[in-house]
Design goal:
By secondary structure, this protein is mainly α. The protein has 7 helices and 2 strands. The chain is globular, with a radius of gyration of 16 Å.
């Protein structure tokens, strides 16, 4: 089964980039790319975000059987996997439709909302200079964050909630960094990193 890894999507703006992440089989640098900035302050923030995304990439991308704990319904899991395949094939409307079905079937679970946000992330990547899609992406991530936090209010060791909160806050920080919102990106990194660490400590096989 293919593992979905939204954290290693490559985009190529026109300006020079500094990229963090492992290389793929063709030697391409994969991971998080940031514009090179002369400011020491921005450089410091960027370094911190790079560190966070290295950890987030590891957490998101390494396969593990325990990820089935995200959701126990095999029919919903099949829909998620089909949606992921559609994303890889850049069939974003079909992917979006499947994740809407997941949301309708499990409106109380963050998984459908998170992957629907990943569809929006791909829309942004396909035309990165157009910032008109950004606010919708932020709004979708905020839904995931709110849902995860409600679950964490009931159980602070809910690994599923920790994973989706960390992923959502992390992607929000990534886009903020790419847009030059260094303070917002740094704040998101400070929130997301301990969340991802806690999830990994609670379930290192996840």
């Amino acid at each position: 089964m293919r593992e979905f890894c939204p954290a290693v999507m490559i985009f190529r703006p026109k300006r020079p980039l500094s990229c963090a992440g492992p290389r793929d089989v063709r030697g391409e640098q994969r991971g998080v790319c940031f514009e090179l900035e002369p400011s020491n302050c921005r450089s410091c923030v960027t370094s911190g975000i790079r560190y966070f995304f290295n950890l987030l990439v590891f957490f998101l991308c390494f396969p593990s059987p325990s990820r089935s704990q995200w959701i126990s319904d095999p029919e919903i899991d099949r829909r998620i996997q089909r949606g992921i395949d559609y994303i890889y094939n850049i069939e974003l409307e079909k992917a979006d439709s499947l994740f809407k079905e997941v949301i309708n079937l499990r409106p109380d679970h963050p998984v459908g909302y998170f992957f629907q946000a990943m569809v929006q992330w791909w829309r942004i990547l396909t035309n990165f200079d157009d910032e008109s899609q950004d606010q919708q992406f932020y709004d979708m991530l905020n839904v995931v964050i709110d849902m995860a936090e409600k679950r964490l209010d009931e159980n602070s060791k809910d690994v599923t909630a920790l994973f989706f909160k960390g992923g959502a806050v992390g992607f929000r920080g990534r886009l903020r960094a790419n847009r030059g919102n260094w303070l917002g990106a740094a704040n998101d990194g400070n929130v997301a990193l301990p969340v991802v660490r806690k999830a990994y400590e609670l379930d290192p096989n996840n």
